[in-house]
Amino acid sequence: MRKIFRRPRSLKSAPFRYCPGCGHGLLQRLIAECIDSMKLRGKTIGIAPVGCAVFAYNYFDFDMLEAAHGRPPAVATALKRTMPDKIIFSYQGDGDLAAIGTAEIIHAANRGENFSVFFVNNATYGMTGGQMAPTTLPGQRTTTTPEGRNISTSGYPLHVSELLSTIEGASFIQRVSIDSYENILIAKDAIKKAFRYQIEGKGFSFVEMLSPCPTAWRLSPKESLEWIRTDMVREYPPGIIKDKFMENN
Question: Which CATH number is 24-142+153-248's, of 3.30.43.10, 3.40.50.11810, 3.40.50.970, 3.30.70.1050?
């Protein structure tokens, strides 16, 4: 019998413990597959912060470092500057990157640091109880906005990709979704491009990933994917937001 499917070498032989329908397991598999296909496993270092993203070190089978909440870009800067031959990436959620970590991500992009960032946007604080995050949609119900996010008191969702695209030091920014097989393939291509730009020394690369959180959204896994298609992509349209080197060609 021909074997057509196998676990990536860059993933440990351990079952994911994420909630049913969570996007983290799929996203981590995509990153692992890209690292394997690009033969980067022996020189890759990943950084995970506080939040559901922190469990990444249980699953990636290469060097992983845990950082304080919001601080992976600062840690990634130190690692890449001291070990420029390594492939460095941070794997961060929206509560981490878009809230306590806004200063770190903005200034890393502004400096044009040569590492890759994978930003998981599920519009909520998943680990701590489903509270409103900076990326929560207007009208979206969370444990801290039971009547829905009110923009008059809570402000608007933070569009991190668009914000970073205005910064000169950012080289590549793309938003993807994992709500369908077609979009999963697009996400995988974006991950590869982020790594390739780092290898080529082109500077700061950033991939935002729209990802389901059925538990916090109080939806089934299927309903969560449908909500991404009907609601989330209207607020956060997928696509290449900035490609500095494509624009210059």
Answer: 3.40.50.970
